[in-house]
Specification:
Blueprint (H helix, E strand, L loop, with lengths): L9 H18 L5 E4 L4 H10 L8 E7 L6 H9 L7 E5 L1 H10 L9 H23 L2 E3 L4 H6 L20 H10 L4 H4 L13 H5 L3 H13 L4 H6 L5 H10 L12
Parallel strand pairs: 1-2, 1-4, 2-3
Helix pairs in contact: 2-7, 4-5
Length: 259
Amino acid sequence: MSNNVLKIDTKQELEKITSFLTKTFAKQNISKAVIGISGGIDSATSFALLTKVLKPENIIVVHMYYFESKFLEMEKLILEKKVPKKNIHLISIKDSVDTVIKLQDITDSEEDKVRIGNISARMRMIILYDLAKKYNALVCGTENKSENLLGYFTRFGDQASDVEPIEHLYKTQVFELARYLGIPETIINQPPTAGLWQGQTDEGQFGFTYQEADQVLYMHFEDGQSLKEIEKRGYTNAKKILQWHKNNLFKHQTPYTIK
């Protein structure tokens, strides 16, 4: 399958997203946004999109880290966009996360890594929503379509948001848009990671690349092709990719309620 089907008209895409964001903030009668910045391409792109529709002084940037901060390159971009330094919050979540780990008697074992990662993601969201309350702002999410379909998010953690500017774009499409927006290559080329534990990367955890995942997900969900049809095209990880979606489908179905 050609990569061309995932190509986007970046100029048109930018216009569509900025129109969506402008209407959303106007409808809510809110002029400020709080965004969590990891230092990677998704948050950098989402931030850059916010700068197209909000005044710099109305954007509150929060970098929340458990390990060492990797904010230097992002800070340059943020300051270039004239966001005031007082709007930039660098917060270590280590003490608060470690407190929960101790209370829950969580070990440093391989099995508990996901639990610790979930605690970290939810701790970040507590901070973001508290700041949103403080500044009367919307929380801007940074999820892309690939993560959404794969269920690669923490419920009530990095998945929680008020507005999502890039959730309709596959990861490889976010790369296109990022370059169009002038995001530095030093940020674009960083291995995608949720920063959930030391050395963790998205693709290392998946066992497949976003490049392959996007092709498979597009063929299955956009074109309606079956697993067998996709495998015939030479996508050897197709079953694993679609299994990720299936295993995490429950995240889209909770809470369970009486209809």
